[in-house]
Amino acid sequence: MNSALKNTLLFGIVGVMIAYTGFTQSWNTALLILNMGLISAIMALGVNLQWGFAGLFNVGIMGFVALGGLAAVLVSMPPTTEAWAAGGGGVIAALLMGAATIWAAVQVMTRMKPGHLRTVAVLVLIVGGFFVYRAIFDPAVDAVEAVNPAGTGYLGGLGLPVILAWPVGGLLAAGAAWIIGKTALGLRSDYLAIATLGIAEIIIAILKNEDWLSRGVKNVVGLPRPTPYEIDLQNDPAFVERAAGYGMDAVTASTLFVKIAYAGLFAVVLVLLLWLSQRALHSPWGRMMRAIRDNEVAAEAMGKDVTKRHLQVFILGSAVCGIAGAMMTTLDGQLTPGTYQPLRFTFLVWVMVIVGGSGNNLGSVLGGFLIWFLWVQVEPMGLFVMELVTSGMADGSPIKAHLIESAAHMRLLTMGLVLLLVLRFSPRGLIPER
Amino acid sequence: MSSDPYGDRGNKDASITNPHGQGTARPVKSRGPARPVPGGPFLIGEAMTGGYGAGPDILHDCTIAVDRGEIAVIVGPNGAGKSTAMKAVFGMLDVRQGQVRLDGEDITALSPQDRVAKGMGFVPQTSNIFTSLTVEENLEMGAFIRRDDFRDTMAQVYDLFPILKDKRLQPAGELSGGQRQQVAVGRALMTQPKVLMLDEPTAGVSPIVMDELFDRIIEVARTGIPILMVEQNARQALEIADKGYVLVQGRNAYSGSGKDLLEDPEVRKSFLGG
Amino acid sequence: MDLLNAFIALSNYVIVPAMAYGSQLALGALGVTLIYGILRFSNFAHGDTMSFGAMVTVLVTWLFQSWGISLGVLPTALLALPFGILGTMGLVLATDRMVYRFYRAQKAKPVILVIVSLGVTFILNGLVRFIIGPDDQNFLDGERFIVSARTFKAMTGLEEGLAIKTTQGITVVTAVIVVALLFWFLNRTRTGKSMRAYSDNEDLALLSGINPERVVMITWLIVAGLATIAGVLYGLDKSFKPFTYFQLLLPIFASAIVGGLGNPLGAIAGGFVIAFSEVTVTYAWKKVAGYVLPDSLAPDGLLQLLSTDYKLAVSFVILLIVLLIKPTGLFKGKSV
């Protein structure tokens, strides 16, 4: 069987599985899986850029995804004018002050000669700067958060169309990646894994605690949509008529229509990014990346700046994750910082990449769809299995209750098992790198 | 590398991976016990043909041997397969044809560990000491397979290499090149081997240290341990050798006593610089 | 008197808790560093190994409690701990046999083992949640305090009280014993030395007749012991919740790296550095400052540098600073 046929078949199988969900459960579920599958595929594409092309081990995907989510809020939510009046200037001033402190410290670090004097100077600068920053920042934040805390209590966003947040999310993630990469790849040995692991946790901590920015654990809900609202469709006589023409009631038709609209938008982004990734892979740049990956010493001897290339690809991959994060928050219509967990947003994406096929863009896309499908469907399957297992037990037995209740945790077990089985028996993944 | 499904894709992330000290050897798996085959030299790799794993053959019908009380030296140009021949005798690569015999037994099927237990001591060319362990701990690790009291052997090693006794509590990695080689030889002697195999023991040491090392090697040989060694400094090595082998492209080109080879005009012209 | 009060307040809120937390981190980091030194990868499943060990201990503790067995003033969990260790040893040996061993035989690169450990993380995480559920579990019994704040105040007549929880005392004492045993084992015994030799030079260890599989097995056994002890101590001191153990991964990795990966001494130092910086930076210094400074200078604010939610960030910043100054960590690690 040639590879094109095999790949088509693999994608076909995943498609059939999603369609089967549509027929047996509901089309809403199937479309939800499809939409999140599209987003997962984009995340996997981003990680594949880093791991597949360059062997960079990013365990902070969650952080970049969350930054994308923040972008969605900052771009699309209406600004809270009252809060801006109360403390917006103060917050901005404090942030500028903080940035200036760091800039000054870096300047001192680079300009002064190493020695105790420099250490003292940097310390004084940073500690002093920190207290000044807090002195400006704290009252401003209190003022912002005091403005209608139940409803807003944050600065809000720019009130722009939410689609704009997708590239902005990419930019935010790219910025963070630049800072991380500059520090972690610039050290004498490469410490990228621990750096990304740490930064991701810090980003989540910021989103959870800086209420003025993202409302913290109070969540931002009701993000504007790029698609029509169901209720508007249901009130649109032309739509109701069309739905009736297909033999559907207006409510179902409107929910399906909205999801299909999202799917269309996401598919456009995925296809665009996939096309770009494929172009990159087969461009001179991509060939050089692979040359560095396969023999760094030789590449360095040929005068390639390996660190710089690694930084480039790390930023690109992270930006793609940021775009996916913004899309996900758009789909959810809300930013809920409490839901970002490394197992779900970092390690699951790794499973997608490995299962799909490291180094192969198509493989990552397939892995994204397949693993997301499993992630969603293993729970009902686990419940079914548990009901089967416990069918012989007496009703009300504590073991039965425990087993059925625990079925929800089957998905973690399954993901681990899938990853280990693929690594063992098909280590190149479902669609291997050529 | 992309061709290796379990490769690292060039990843060098120090926060999650530790390449330091990772093994590269793919020693021969034990395939059966030793069979008695009386007669012949004390240690012989006879008509060996083989290479690493499934790779191409590096050795072609190559024979090297050493007898009791002898020093045998393998010389030859770079890439001639000298170290490979040594590794083949020790079981570090697949010998597809030919056999290895030690003290009247066919040991071709044994793993390197089993050969150590049979009395072979091997000093590799590089990474031949535990750098983070003290000198004394290095020697103790040399005696790892012994469950008896090895303090006498350690005293003998210290007698042979007095400098090691002074430095016995220092990490071996802090010693000079010549001292490290002494630790390496000392480690191999701790098993009380019946035969000692040295892969370029004088690589990277100064000429004075080299002379001293050769003296020590002769001293070891005088205690009755046959020595098989690979040497880059062909002339000096052949001078102390009872038996010499010149390998070229994995084949025996010349063999004879050390003196004969030194006098052979062909060998002189091609390998000893006239 | 004020200075003494300040010191007591400092001990109560900073030194004592940080000592206990530092011991827990150190024990966790020791496990990570041993795997890094000998199996040559960072084990992402370590947090979940800790949680598995703690879970077994919790279950056995409950069993003992239901039988009415107790240790008097000490927590029953200490009696159950050996069973937890045995259970975890069984688990890691089974994992090694079924999962890791294959990759060693393939001479897979360490980063592949890291990915493998991600898979193991998923499985262990699921397993623990499956067995005991994702919620908080309480298994602490016995006397709560060695010294309570009230007794301390009555004893000394000071304004400030010093409370030392039983769990904090047990944590520090256990950590000291375990660390002493581990160092004796690594530096004085034949098996311990062979582990260090294997870590230093795998090929030469092979030539010396050291059996790699045995070294790996013993390493896993020790790591299982360390992980279970660390997990149980943390659970006793704070509470047992599967997810928090996963969250411990970052401070534990940070401790191991700050100290110098692969260096056991460094892991311990790193644990305390991280613990003390986390606690001091997130502690509200108002009370201590109130005693030390004259009344006119007494602060209005809490004097808390960062909210406690940022303690992970503190570990991380400390890590960065150490790496910038000493790339191999405080003690010479293997990651050069």
Task: Compose a concise summary of this entry.
Chain A: It is found in: Cell membrane. With 434 residues, chain A is an all-alpha fold.
The most extensive interface between chains reads: A-C, 42 and 46 residues
Strand order of the largest sheet of chain B: 7-8-9-4-10-11
Strand content of chain B: 15-25%
**How many β-strands of chain B, per DSSP?**
11
Distance between the termini of chain A: 15 Å
The largest pleated sheet of chain B is described as:
6 strands, mixed
What does this protein structure show overall?
Chain A has 434 residues and is an all-alpha fold. Chain A contains 18 helices and two strands. In chain A, strands 1-2 form a two-stranded antiparallel ribbon. In chain A, helix 3 runs antiparallel to helix 6. The longest helix of chain A is centred in the middle third of the chain and has 33 residues. The model of chain A has no long low-confidence stretch (mean pLDDT 91). The longest helix of chain B is centred in the last third of the chain and has 16 residues. In chain B, strand 2 and strand 3 form a beta hairpin. By secondary structure, chain C is mainly alpha-helical. Chain C has a single domain, classed as ABC transporter involved in vitamin B12 uptake, BtuC (Orthogonal Bundle), CATH 1.10.3470. Chain C is 72% helix and 1% strand. A two-stranded antiparallel ribbon of chain C has the order 1-2. In chain C, helix 3 runs antiparallel to helix 9, helix 11 packs parallel to helix 14 and helix 12 packs across helix 14. Chains in contact: A-B, A-C, B-C. At the A-C interface, helix 7, helix 15 and helix 18 of A face helix 4, helix 11 and helix 14 of C.
SSE order and pairing:
The complex is a heterotrimer of chains A (434), B (274) and C (336).
Chain A: H1 3-24, H2 27-54, H3 61-76, H4 81-111, H5 116-146, H6 165-184, H7 192-209, H8 211-214, E1 220-221, H9 230-234, H10 237-245, H11 250-282, H12 284-294, H13 296-301, H14 306-332, E2 334-335, H15 342-356, H16 361-390, H17 398-406, H18 410-425
Antiparallel strand pairs in A: 1-2
Chain B: E1 35-36, E2 43-51, E3 59-66, E4 71-75, H1 82-90, E5 94-102, E6 105-106, H2 112-118, E7 120-123, H3 135-142, H4 151-160, H5 162-166, H6 177-189, E8 195-199, H7 207-222, E9 227-230, H8 234-240, E10 243-248, E11 251-256, H9 258-263, H10 265-271
Parallel strand pairs in B: 4-9, 4-10, 7-8, 8-9
Antiparallel strand pairs in B: 1-6, 2-3, 2-5, 5-6, 10-11
Helix pairs in contact in B: 3-6
Chain C: H1 2-38, H2 46-67, H3 77-105, H4 110-132, E1 145-147, H5 149-156, E2 164-165, H6 166-188, H7 190-200, H8 202-207, H9 212-237, H10 242-247, H11 249-259, H12 264-282, H13 286-292, H14 311-325
Antiparallel strand pairs in C: 1-2
Helix pairs in contact in C: 1-6, 1-9, 1-11, 1-12, 1-13, 2-3, 2-4, 2-9, 3-4, 3-9, 6-7, 6-9, 7-9, 11-12, 11-14, 12-14
